[in-house]
């Protein structure tokens, strides 16, 4: 081989390496540009989604306000209904108490034997309620006029009442 080739050979080799290196740089630059484009595209998509979410949020604010107002209204209605139910319950109790007071007065005014005959036909709980609201002497006279087994059952129920 000639001396010229020996001198130019390494240059030729290095220039081919240089060309390959330049191609690699160009390929890397293209890849970086492609990645940059993809990142910009993703950034645009994220911005669009963020704008959509902001619009939705703005649309939801009036709805949330309306829901809060409706909840307040429902709470107020619940308080009103609870108070009304309490009043109705108290009225019913007063009405029942008035009826019971009337029955107590009615049976207290009767002869004990006659009251015992009528009470024998009533439901056990009703008899117990009437007798428990009577004065002791009147209730005792009526119980004494009843059949012993019925009087004993009523006495047993009276003993179980919580005053």
Short characterization:
The protein is mainly alpha-helical and 163 residues long. It contains five helices and no strands. The longest helix is centred in the middle third of the chain and has 107 residues, at 3-109.
What does this structure look like?
- This protein is mainly alpha-helical and 163 residues long.
- The chain has a domain of 54 residues.
- 90% of the residues lie in helices and 0% in strands.
- It has five helices and no strands.
- Helix 1 crosses helix 3.
- The N and C termini lie far apart (130 Å).
- The model has no long low-confidence stretch (mean pLDDT 87).
Observed structural traits:
single chain; 163 residues; 5 helices
Spell out the blueprint of helices and strands.
Blueprint: H1 3-109, H2 112-119, H3 124-133, H4 136-145, H5 148-159
Helix pairs in contact: 1-3, 2-4, 3-5
